[in-house]
């Protein structure tokens, strides 16, 4: 039997450029401290700041704002990339340090150069630095001196704002009641919000329909069935 899901040809996911300016930043409890740190530059408590938070939590948005404001150079903490020299010349940014990986000695020299030349280094990561695999004791010591700001799990307010923004990035505008319906039933993560909005957008386009509560219920149910949401995510009437 051919299911409706497989019979429908969903459109390819065309790129939607997210709005990443400071005015587009969503400010709510879980990200307050990170936003305040970005806004406080250059008056940081330490020359090295790490923003730690889950996938899709807004780290890249904050990093983009900071990079635009400071003219920071995006670098990789790997030998032969020019990263150490860049740290001598101005602010530098390392994204996804825990996932992309780094060379201990290169990162150590980057931090030293930032400190010696009066510049700043912003690092984004899913994990706190104490959870990174670091073998060089001197680097471990430098990381302990960094200021770490954590982005917490999203609350209802932030999830609602994110969903509205994700739809707006696609030039779509949804009713507040539909947003509340989705938030009450979805997994509590911004990554899940991104996946959900993308699927709703593509399914609505495939059917030539608006994004409705019925469509949202269908996509939520599929994500629960696929194990992407816990079973209780769809249990609220």
Number of strands: 5
What fraction strand?
5-15%
Summed over residues and divided by their number, the pLDDT gives a mean of 85
Oligomer: single chain
The Rg value, from CA coordinates, equals 21 Å
Distance between the termini: 30 Å
Apparent shape: elongated
How would you write the strand order of the largest sheet? 2-3-4-1-5
SSE run: HHEHEHEHHEHEHHHH
Give the second-level CATH assignment, the architecture of the largest domain: 3-Layer(aba) Sandwich
Q: Stretches where pLDDT falls below 50 for ≥5 residues? A: 1-15, 229-237
Tally of individual domains: 2
Look at the helices and sheets and give the structural class: alpha/beta
How many helical elements? 11
The CATH superfamily of the largest domain bears the name P-loop containing nucleotide triphosphate hydrolases
Query: Would you state the CATH class of the largest domain?
Result: Alpha Beta
* Major sheet size, sense and barrel closure: 5 strands, parallel
CATH topology call of the largest domain = Rossmann fold
Percent range of helical residues = 40-55%
